[in-house]
Design brief:
Layout: H1 7-25, H2 29-39, H3 44-51, H4 55-62, H5 72-85, H6 90-101, H7 110-119, H8 128-149, H9 152-176, H10 187-191, E1 198-204, E2 209-215, E3 220-226, E4 231-236, E5 239-244, E6 250-254, E7 257-258, E8 269-274
Antiparallel strand pairs: 1-4, 1-6, 2-3, 2-5, 5-8, 6-7
Helix pairs in contact: 2-5, 5-6, 8-9
Length: 281
């Protein structure tokens, strides 16, 4: 009779070694995100601009350092955001983060949330609408009272004294009304665009896409996400530089002509257009 361990007794230890080997073979969260970003043709600056996650945090996460995130809740949020920006399913990465960092995140303390809610109303600007309504009601009441009094003197008082409240309302109205934004060129306006400028219209025809646009001096004209159906138009004296996060979802019109490019869904394109015939840079 053998006094050694049976094969069945040794199997749990073998399984533990197999699981350990699998864990070592699985790439880290930061490695997966970095490789996906490079495969998508994006720089850290591109991802930071698209997600509003600071560049130093993107670098840290790609190096598997989650300390700058400020806690598990924020780290999970950053991982989810970065995964979507590089066209990855975030759920496997979040599950891996839970395995490596202690499961579900601890609940956020109630005190900071309460402080945030209590402080937020103090940041609001003055309620100009209520001020306008109160001023208008006061003017109407004053005018109605003087008209009710009647007489020539009363009429003169209405004009002389009523002008002061009217003038007090006017500055409030001017500060309330923002400057009207310049209207975007219509299709006919684009077709008739002056030859001494370049006009580029971007249409999110088949889905949402992050885009960035700069003028010939490198000044940022737009940096954000267009939802499906949204349109943006840009004009410059010589050049417009574009970065399309999902070029397959975009239709482009340059100087009144549609760009017939077969952009693939999910592809990143960097383009430059000038006053001449539409040409990809």
């Amino acid at each position: 009779m053998s006094i050694g361990n049976s094969p069945e007794d040794e199997r749990p230890f073998e399984n533990e070694h197999v699981e350990a080997d699998r864990e070592e073979a699985r790439p880290s969260i930061g490695t997966v995100l970095r490789q996906a970003r490079i495969a998508a043709g994006l720089t850290v600056d591109d991802v930071s601009s698209a997600t509003r996650v600071r560049m130093n945090i993107v670098h840290a996460i790609e190096a598997d350092d989650f300390t700058p995130c400020g806690g598990d809740v924020y780290a999970r949020g950053h991982v989810r955001t970065l995964a979507k920006a590089v066209h990855l399913d975030p759920e496997p990465l979040l599950a891996q983060y839970g395995d490596e960092h202690g499961g579900r995140p601890a609940p956020t303390p109630a005190a900071p949330l309460f402080e945030a809610e209590r402080i937020r109303p103090e940041r609001r600007g003055p309620n100009w609408t209520a001020a306008m309504v109160a001023a208008i009601v006061a003017v109407i009441g004053f005018v109605g009272f003087t008209m009710f009094q009647g007489g020539d003197d009363g009429g003169e008082a209405t004009v002389a004294e009523g002008s002061s409240p009217s003038e007090s309302v006017s500055p409030t109205t001017k500060t309330k009304k923002p400057a009207d934004p310049a209207p975007e060129p219509s299709d006919s306006a684009i077709a008739a665009a002056p030859r001494d400028k370049v006009t580029v219209r971007v249409v999110a025809a088949d889905g949402r896409s992050w885009i960035a646009a700069k003028d010939h001096n490198g000044r940022m004209l737009f940096d954000g996400v267009l939802k499906q159906g949204d349109t943006k138009t840009f004009q410059d004296s010589s050049k417009v530089h574009l970065v399309l996060g999902d070029a397959g979802a975009i239709d482009l019109f340059v100087n009144g002509k549609k760009i017939e490019e077969n952009f693939q869904p999910g592809s990143v394109e960097r383009l430059t257009y000038t006053k001449g015939d539409p040409e990809a840079g």
